[in-house]
Each structure stands twice: as structure tokens, then as C-alpha cells.
Prior knowledge:
By secondary structure, the protein is of the alpha/beta class. The protein folds into two domains: about 10-130, no CATH class; about 135-240, Dinitrogenase iron-molybdenum cofactor biosynthesis domain (Nucleotidyltransferase, domain 5), CATH 3.30.420.130. It has helices spanning about 35-45, 50-60, 65-85, 175-180, 185-195, 210-215, 230-240, and strands at about 10, 20, 30-35, 85-90, 95, 120-125, 130, 135-140, 160-165, 170-175, 200, 220. Strand 6 and strand 7 (about 130) form a beta hairpin. The radius of gyration is 19 Å and the shape is elongated. The chain starts with 7 loop residues before the first strand and ends in a 17-residue tail after the last helix.
Amino acid sequence: MPRPRKCRQVDTAPDVTYFKPRGVPLRDLAEAYLPLDGFEAIRLTDHEGLNHEAAARQMGVSRQTFGRILAAARQTVAKALVEGMALRIHGGAYRLSAAAPSKAAGGTPDGAQSAIKTTNEHAVDGNCKETNQMNRIAVTSEGPTLDDAVDPRFGRAAGFIVVDPDTLDFAYVGNGQSQARAQGAGIQAAETVAREGVRAVLTGFVGPKAFQALAAVGIQVAQNLENMTVRQAVERYQKGDIQWAERSEAQGFGR
Length: 255
């Protein structure tokens, strides 16, 4: 069993926890997640100008651990900037100081409360919190809520509801990049859900190439779940009433 991560001290919470490219609808954006401990590492070094040793001491971790946190945080920010993704600051293994406002634990962009909710967090060390994203699944959806219909297409789905089936906390991830492609929409969509770290995809049909791409990164696929809402598909998953596919069953959607 892996050793639990040491809780990281976060002294300053961000006032703003969500950034997106101007002029691009939220439904068309993939999201990059910057954990709160990663935000703190960037703040201490790139904003406050502390060296790694001093910053590590302030966060209560080793210098080597701090270096890994900072490198991962910078990579996430760079990915969001280069690929035009929305950037959301939340989660991680952290303990907020008494002076830090609780709103830093999560949040939603203005006007998107129905589309995005914070992921589940649980105490792991006193006041320490750690976000659990390992149990999440993705459901193709025609809209941004659990009560929208399952989109029968995978590659050209309107978007994906990424949901924790234990808590029903969810986030909506748009699929505009795949829809704009003349070819390879399924592979692009597979890359999108893989970035979200999900363990399974629930949908109607997945084309052969997309199915292979999902299988290659260990994501299970359940097909033939059209004609129901996302919530109903998740409920079937919760009950274990899901048949995992061994190959693509796409007929006519094919991408």
C-alpha cells in the first residue's frame, strides 16, 4: 500500500480560483487542475522570491518534495496557457493556516455554478484535506448537468460529465476541440478524458480507434447507455449494472 502523502502547509489562499481564455465558452474548454499546494509553491518562489529551501520549510516538506510540487505546478500552468485550457485551483494534500479563507478549497467560475462543482475532499491528517480523483468516471453528455441526456456519440459528444460516483460531485468538460476535427475526433476525445484521470467512460458508442486509445491508458468503456440521463447512467454504475465492453460496438458513429 502506498504511503500517504505528507500534508502541505498553505498559508495564503488564492482570491481567484478559476481562469479561462477570454471569449471561449466554458462548454468548449478542457480544464487543467492546479492543486492548492502547487499554487502555494508557485506563490512562494515565483511571487515571493523564496529559495527552495526556505519555501520547503514554510510548507513543511523536504526540499526534494517541494521541487517536485513546484515542477508539477509549473507544468500545469504551462499546459493551460499553451493549449488554451481553463485553469482551476483546488484540491491537493494541504492544511490551510488559520488566516486563510476557506473559499480556497474550491470554487466555480462566475455563471457556471450548474456546470462545475468541487470534487470530494476528505480529512487525512487533522485539518489536512486531500482530493480524491481516482474514482471518477466520465459520461458523454449533451449538456453540462447530471440531468442532461447521455450523448450517444463518444468522439463528437457535446462534452463529458466527469463525476465522482460516491458523492455525485462533478465537473463539465467541453469537447469542442474534437467536434471541430474532420478526422480523429475519437482519439482527441480519448485524450481529453484521459487528462481528467478517469477510470471509466460511459457512453453510447465508441469507435475502434478511440476504444483502442482508451484501453491503452487503462480506461474501461461501457457502451449502449444512450436514451437515459447522465444521472441514470451513473446510478447504473453505482448498482454494478454495467457491462464493460471488450471491443468497439459503434455502428455508424465510428469516430
